[in-house]
Amino acid sequence: MKILYATYWGVNEGLSVATSQPNLRLLCAHEKVEKVDYVTVERNPNVIKPIENALNSPKIIWKPLYSKNYKIHFFNKINDIFLIRKFLLNLVKNNDYEIIIFRGAIMAMFAYWVKKRTKAKVGLESYEPHAAYMLESGVWKSNSLFYKVQLYYENLIKQSADFLTTVTENYKLHLVDNEQIEPEKINVSPCWVQLDKFQFNPQKRAEIRQNLGWQNATVGIYVGKFGSIYYDDEAFNLFKAAFDFFPNFRLILLSPDDANLLKIKLQRVNISLEKTLIKLAAHEEIPHFLSAADFAFSPIKVAPVRRFCSPIKDGEYWACGLPIIIPDGVGDDSDIIKKEGGGAVIDIDDPKSVQIGLETVAKIITNEHYREEIRAIAVRHRDKNWQENAYSDLLNG
């Protein structure tokens, strides 16, 4: 069975390494799969190969498409659309694929165009309402071209796709109950975590904390960006609240954002830079820093459609045994915390709610076995079995 697997990210970007490539390896583990052509969009012209062991299967054939990277964002986006369309249609024309998988709703446009020109099964995994995310986060306006086009193709593809994999049970229920999508073609697979790689490492914890001189500190960590679908100023106010609450608090920020800008934002809320580590970490390093921390932040913006998302960072936090401070209404995760523990659900704009959340986390981390108990949440809700079952249904259907 020959498969095309297409994404919008570069082969060495964090989301590719953390989500797409683990899925590819699961897919290739099936005996029915002979070959997978893996399409990525490269915006760095110097990328000529995946990072070491990223693909790790002779069945995977990497098919990079290089963006022109025009300086004007609008022109570059439009040019990318034409480049990706031509590239994918040429692949479909010259290969007898049986299944074509697009990763993420951002690929809805290309999935629809390909669906019209092939007899292969076509669908999307990690399918979320991307247009609504961008609108409610304030990144796009309702009258913007990008929003209108993305929403148009999302509506087309979810009706015409042969299969969809949502990342939350909430979104599957919404599609079935409110948009009359056939439940038979929808699987649910939260963004799963490589549990063998993401686990508490006491040796790395001791090593990092000693190097930083933080042996006796309470350490919070955030992995990710600021702005867009994530809180920005509000997140830094949340960090400041943690400094005010814990007597000897330290903060780790693993972020691709500009470090100098992050320092300005920290100083703006009177957080000492000497008590903060800012680092752009490789994906394989992240479990080490999670082990060094005591709890984690997940400052994702509250919006009606946010209950349909599945942040990979939350699963990685849990897998390393960290309780999470998270706003209400984020995917299935905030509901899981309410029912099973594993953190604190807050209203980030309410100081009293933030205070209660910090008190909850402070109590959790006094439990001698809290890391094992919280890791069990990741095992229940972020294990690879979800995706394995989805692929089994797809390949045997």
Helix and strand topology:
Blueprint lengths: L1 E5 L7 H15 L6 E8 L17 E7 L6 H22 L4 E5 L4 H8 L5 E7 L2 H7 L8 H16 L2 E4 L2 H11 L6 E3 L13 H11 L5 E6 L9 H13 L3 E6 L4 H10 L7 E4 L6 H7 L2 E3 L14 H8 L4 E4 L5 H8 L2 E4 L4 H14 L5 H12 L3 H12 L1
Parallel strand pairs: 1-2, 1-4, 2-3, 4-5, 5-6, 6-7, 8-9, 8-11, 9-10, 11-12, 12-13
Helix pairs in contact: 3-5, 4-5, 7-10, 8-13, 11-14
Descriptive account of the structure:
With 397 residues, the protein is α/β, with parallel strands linked by helices. It has two domains: 2-190 and 383-396, Glycogen Phosphorylase B (Rossmann fold, 3-Layer(aba) Sandwich), CATH 3.40.50; 202-381, Glycogen Phosphorylase B (Rossmann fold, 3-Layer(aba) Sandwich). 44% of the residues lie in helices and 17% in strands. The chain has 15 helices and 13 strands. The protein has helices spanning 14-28, 73-94, 108-115, 130-136, 145-160, 169-179, 202-212, 233-245, 259-268, 286-292, 312-319, 333-340, 351-364, 370-381, 385-396; strands spanning 2-6, 35-42, 60-66, 99-103, 121-127, 163-166, 186-188, 218-223, 249-254, 276-279, 295-297, 324-327, 343-346. The strands form two sheets. Strands 3-2-1-4-5-6-7 form a seven-stranded parallel sheet, sandwiched between helices. It has a six-stranded parallel sheet with strand order 10-9-8-11-12-13, sandwiched between helices. α3 (108-115) packs across α5, α7 crosses α10 (286-292) and α8 (233-245) packs across α13 (351-364). The protein is globular and about 65 Å long.
